[in-house]
C-alpha cells in the first residue's frame, strides 16, 4: 500500500508516518504534492493555538492545541496535537482501535509518570491515558500495574551508575535479529576483542572512582556472552569481578541454551552473578529451525535444570509471540513447558519486523494481529499464574499487532538494569562494540549519549577513541 502524504511541516513527516503505520504497518508513506496526495495535512497557528486538519477519503478531522511553555514544551505540544489529529481521522476511517491508541513512543510509562508528577492519583493517570490518548483500558491498567511494581526500584541517587558489557558474538544469527553481532565461528577475533574490552572496562572503573559514582547494576549482554569458550568466559568474569566488586546486581545473558554446558555454568556460579537468562524464544522445534536457533526445546529444559541444580536462584526466560507460522496452540505449548520449569521471571516479547533481519529480508510474516494479541494475553496469564507482576515494558516499531514487550517477575526478582535502561533514570557506562553510554541529568530532564562503533574490527582498532568519548561525556557536562 502506497500513501502519498502532504504536510507543510516537513520536519514532522516521519512523525505522521508513524501514526499511519499504526493502522497500516506495511504502508509505504511518501511525500506528495498537496493536489495529488492521499493524506492531506494542513496546519496553522494564531494567538497561542495550533490547528491541525487531516483529510483522507473524503473525511476530515480538526484538532486544536494550546501552544504554551518554553520552546521545547511548545514543540512537544505541537507534535502531540498533530499526531492525535491524524490518529483520530484514521481511527474513524478504519474503525480500528489500536491497543495503545495514538501512542507511538517506545516508553509509554513516561506518560504515566508525567501524569503522576502533575498530582494525578494512579487511578486518575490510568483514566487520563484512556481518555486523552485512546489507550485501551487493558493497556492503561498494565501501565499502572507496571509503575506500581517499579515503586521503590525506579528512584535512584544522581551519582548512581550502571555498567553494561557487550559480547557481540553468537553461535548463529537469529532470523529476527538486527543487533550488532557476528557468528563466533572459530573464535579468531575473541582474544583481540576481549583485550580491547578489558582495556575499556579498566578505564570505566577508573572513571567511576574518579567521578565519585556508585555502581548499581552490572549487565553482561550481547550477542551471547556464553558463546565464548569456558576459559574465555571465566577470564571475562574474573576481570569484571575485580574491576566492579560493588555491583548490587549482576546479570549475564546466557540466552542460548546450546551454549550452556556445565563448565560455563560453573564459571558463572564462581563469579558473583545474581541473575541469568535461559531463553527458549519458543519451545517448538520446527519454529526454532525457521528462526535459526541451533538448539531444541529439550536443550532448553536441560540447560535450565542444570542451572537450577548448580544453585542459580534468579533465572529469566524469554519467549516471543507471533513468530512466523505459529498458532495460538503452539504458543500455549511453549508457555506450558516454560511454566513447568518455574522460572523467576518471564519476558514476553512480540515479534518485530526489524530492518536488517533475515525475517524482514525474506518476507516472513508474523502471526496476524488478533492471534498476536491472544498470544500476548496468554503470556500475561501464564506469568501471573507463576506469581509474577509486570515490572517493565517497552514498545518497538513494526511490532506485530501494534503490541508491546513486557517483563514479569516474582517479587524481589526484578532486574534493576532493565528498569534503569527502560525508564532512563540511571546513567550507564557501556563497554564493547555497539554499546551506548548515556548520562542522565534528572534535574534537567536531559540525557547525553556516547555510542561505541558497532563493527568488531573497528572497535578493536579504535578502543582509545571509545574511552575518550566516555571521558568527554562526564568531563564536558560537569
Q: Give me the CATH fold name of the largest domain.
A: pyruvate-formate lyase- activating enzyme
What is the helix tally?
A: 16
CA radius of gyration: 23 Å
Please, how many domains? 3
Termini Cα gap: 50 Å
Percent in helix: 40-55%
Give the DSSP E fraction (strand runs of 2 or more residues): 15-25%
- The CATH top-level class label of the largest domain: Alpha Beta
Biggest sheet, strands in spatial order? 14-15-13-12-11-10-9-6-16
Keywords: Oxidoreductase
GO molecular function: 4 iron, 4 sulfur cluster binding; coproporphyrinogen dehydrogenase activity
Enzyme class: oxidoreductase
EC number: 1.3.98.3
What are the SSEs and their pairings?
Elements (H helix, E strand, L loop, with lengths): L1 E5 L6 H11 L4 E4 L7 E8 L2 E8 L2 E8 L4 H24 L14 H9 L4 H12 L3 H14 L9 E8 L1 E2 L11 E2 L6 H22 L2 E9 L7 H14 L5 E4 L9 H9 L4 E3 L7 H6 L6 H13 L5 E7 L6 H14 L3 E6 L7 H4 L7 H17 L3 E6 L10 E5 L6 H8 L3 E5 L4 E6 L4 E6 L4 H6 L1 H13 L3
Parallel strand pairs: 1-2, 1-3, 6-9, 6-16, 7-8, 9-10, 10-11, 11-12, 12-13
Antiparallel strand pairs: 3-4, 4-5, 13-15, 14-15, 17-18
Helix pairs in contact: 1-2, 3-4, 4-5, 6-7, 6-16, 7-8, 11-13
Amino acid at each position: 500500500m502506497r500513501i502519498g502524504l502532504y504536510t507543510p511541516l516537513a520536519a514532522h513527516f516521519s512523525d505522521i508516518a508513524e501514526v499511519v503505520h499504526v493502522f497500516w504497518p506495511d504502508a509505504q508513506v511518501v511525500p506528495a504534492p498537496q493536489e495529488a496526495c492521499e493524506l492531506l495535512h494542513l496546519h496553522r497557528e494564531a494567538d497561542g493555538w495550533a490547528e491541525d486538519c487531516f483529510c483522507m477519503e473524503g473525511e476530515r478531522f480538526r484538532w486544536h492545541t494550546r501552544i504554551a511553555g518554553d520552546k521545547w514544551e511548545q514543540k512537544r505540544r505541537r507534535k502531540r496535537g498533530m499526531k492525535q489529529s491524524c490518529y483520530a481521522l484514521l481511527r474513524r476511517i478504519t474503525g480500528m482501535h489500536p491497543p495503545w491508541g495514538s501512542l507511538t513512543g517506545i516508553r509509554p510509562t513516561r506518560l504515566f509518570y508525567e501524569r503522576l508528577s502533575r498530582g494525578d492519583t494512579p487511578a486518575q493517570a490510568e483514566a487520563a491515558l484512556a481518555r486523552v490518548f485512546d489507550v485501551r483500558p487493558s493497556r492503561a491498567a498494565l501501565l499502572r500495574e507496571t509503575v506500581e511494581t517499579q515503586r521503590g526500584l525506579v528512584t535512584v541517587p544522581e551519582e548512581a551508575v550502571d555498567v553494561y558489557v557487550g559480547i557481540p558474538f553468537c553461535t548463529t544469527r537469529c532470523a529476527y535479529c538486527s543487533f550488532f553481532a557476528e557468528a563466533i565461528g572459530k573464535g579468531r577475533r575473541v582474544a583481540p576483542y576481549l583485550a580491547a574490552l578489558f582495556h575499556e572496562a579498566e578505564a570505566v572503573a577508573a572513571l567511576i572512582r574518579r567521578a565519585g559514582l556508585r555502581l548499581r547494576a552490572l549487565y553482561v549482554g550481547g550477542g551471547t556472552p556464553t558463546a565464548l569458550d569456558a576459559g574465555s568466559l571465566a577470564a571475562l568474569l574474573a576481570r569484571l569481578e575485580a574491576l566492579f566488586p560493588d555491583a548490587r546486581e549482576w546479570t549475564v545473558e546466557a540466552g542460548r541454551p546450546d551454549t550452556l554446558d556445565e563448565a560455563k555454568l560453573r564459571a558463572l556460579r564462581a563469579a558473583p552473578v545474581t541473575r541469568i537468562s535461559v531463553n527458549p524464544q519458543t519451545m517448538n522445534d520446527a519454529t526454532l529451525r525457521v528462526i535459526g536457533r541451533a538448539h531444541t526445546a529439550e536443550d532448553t529444559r536441560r540447560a535450565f535444570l542444570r542451572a537450577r541444580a548448580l544453585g542459580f536462584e534468579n533465572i529469566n526466560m524469554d519467549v516471543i509471540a507471533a513468530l512466523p507460522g505459529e498458532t495460538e496452540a503452539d504458543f500455549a505449548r511453549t508457555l506450558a513447558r516454560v511454566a513447568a520449569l518455574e522460572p523467576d521471571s518471564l519476558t514476553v516479547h512480540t515479534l518485530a519486523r526489524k530492518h536488517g533481519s533475515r525475517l524482514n529480508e525474506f518476507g516472513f510474516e508474523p502471526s496476524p494481529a488478533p492471534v498476536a494479541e491472544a498470544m500476548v494475553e496468554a503470556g500475561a496469564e501464564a506469568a501471573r499464574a507463576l506469581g509474577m507482576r509486570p515490572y517493565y515494558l517497552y514498545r518497538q516499531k513494526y511490532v506485530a499487532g501494534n503490541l508491546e514487550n513486557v517483563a514479569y517477575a516474582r517479587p524481589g526478582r526484578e532486574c534493576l538494569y532493565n528498569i534503569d535502561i527502560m525508564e532512563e533514570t540511571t546513567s550507564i557506562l557501556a563497554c564493547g562494540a555497539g554499546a551506548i553510554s548515556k548520562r542522565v541529568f534528572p534535574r534537567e530532564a536531559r540525557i547525553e549519549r556516547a555510542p561505541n562503533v558497532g563493527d568488531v574490527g573497528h572497535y578493536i582498532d579504535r578502543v582509545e577513541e571509545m574511552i575518550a568519548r566516555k571521558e568527554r561525556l562526564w568531563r564536558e557536562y560537569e
